[in-house]
Amino acid sequence: MRAWLLVLALGVLGLPAARAQPPRVQWQRDLDFSDRTGKVHHKTNWCDVEQQVRNGTLALKDSLRGKALNLFIPLSSFWARVDEEAGGMLKGHHTTLLDELALRAGLSWRNTYVTAPQGTLSTGETFTELAQYYAAHWELIIDVYADSSARRALGLDFPFNFLNLSPVLITRVRAESESFRETFLSFTRPFSRLTLIATTILSALVFWALERGVNFVHFPNGGDAYGLGTALYYTWAKVTWSGHYSPVSGPGRIFASSWAVVALCFFASYTARIASSLVSEQQLLQGLSSMEEADSTGARICVWKGTFAERAVQQFGGVKVVLASSNAEQYSFLRAGLCDGLLQADSVWELDKNQKELNPDCELESVDRSFLTL
User: Fold this and answer.
1) Paired sense of beta strands 167-176 and 364-368, if any
2) Which of 44, 51, 199, 341 makes the best surface tag, with the fewest CB within 10 Å?
3) Are 181 and 277 in contact (CB under 8 A)?
4) How far apart (Å, rounded) are the C-alpha atoms in residues 24 and 97?
5) Across the strands, what pairs with 160?
6) Quick one: pLDDT at residue 58?
């Protein structure tokens, strides 16, 4: 499981500096994100340094001591951001690593970098083409890119890896509980309501047949239709424990005892279900469990257009791909139910899941990490 911080140096060695290094502020002022004509050029000739390292007159660990690196750093909320409260200082994950690198190697970078909004693409431009442009005009590009043979063939170099960019499937896990109506009427479980009604009517007929002609308390008129209605009333009253039989015959008493046990079971079930409706436990319902399931069911999967995820999802022909124009948009699509899941890089998801604007209700969860390794 590997992934890469993109540190690009396309043709760094052997290219002369186009002009003296200006201050960072001036570089930023001169930068035009819509310009791809090559006017901006901040590269240094490192041929002498390389030669000294190769012939052993300069140790590799000291090769950049006292030097300044010209960097391009796309901004994002976590990787690199401008902290206005700290006087516009650049902070974040990438900058922390760069500061440590500068400390150990004795180099500098804080006054020789420019920034841009993350994913600043021209019309029709891909992220690979954007990386090529950056690498052709700056010495190093500090951003998150997936390493691939196709990108290496274009001259892009990925010398340092520390992130896991293997895609993971993110799905929405929502809490759901039964409605009060469903809980209130569920006291017949595991029996059906029809079974309860049929059993009650049949038991009333049996009791009436056993007691008519001998039980003049319940059936003073013998076995007429009124007596049958009375038997049905006492049978149902026993279910709710609001009344009971008064049998006279031996068979009637045996039957009444048996029905009391059945009524007790129904009543206990009813009481438990009513209690659960007052303190209902929520059940977590997961959307998808794997990309294979998404593929077989024709699920909708959100991906950020132009990223590695768009290519990764293409191996699943049954999936309906929903393209988003940004990272935030694909998460909003998922929360709104416009897609059933989304693909995100493993390490990036570990950060995104704790972002309030991306996962405000903590209802998103990763469910499949096995289908592709980068």
Assistant:
1) antiparallel
2) 51
3) no
4) 19
5) 5
6) 93
Q: What is the pLDDT of residue 329?
A: 93
CA distance linking residue 124 with residue 122, whole number of Å: 6
Q: What are phi and psi of 35, to 5 degrees?
A: -95, 120
Cβ pair 113, 24 in contact under 8 A: yes
Taking a C-beta distance cutoff of 8 angstroms, is the pair 173, 287 a contact? yes
The model carries a pTM of 0.50
- Tell me how far the alpha carbon of residue 1 is from its chain's centroid: 20
Q: List all residues 6 or more positions away from 65 whose beta carbon is below 8 Å from its beta carbon.
A: 105, 106, 107
Question: Within the chain, which residues score under 50 in pLDDT?
Answer: 1-22, 281-284
Return the pLDDT at 81.
85
Residue 228: count of CB within 10 angstroms of its CB:
17
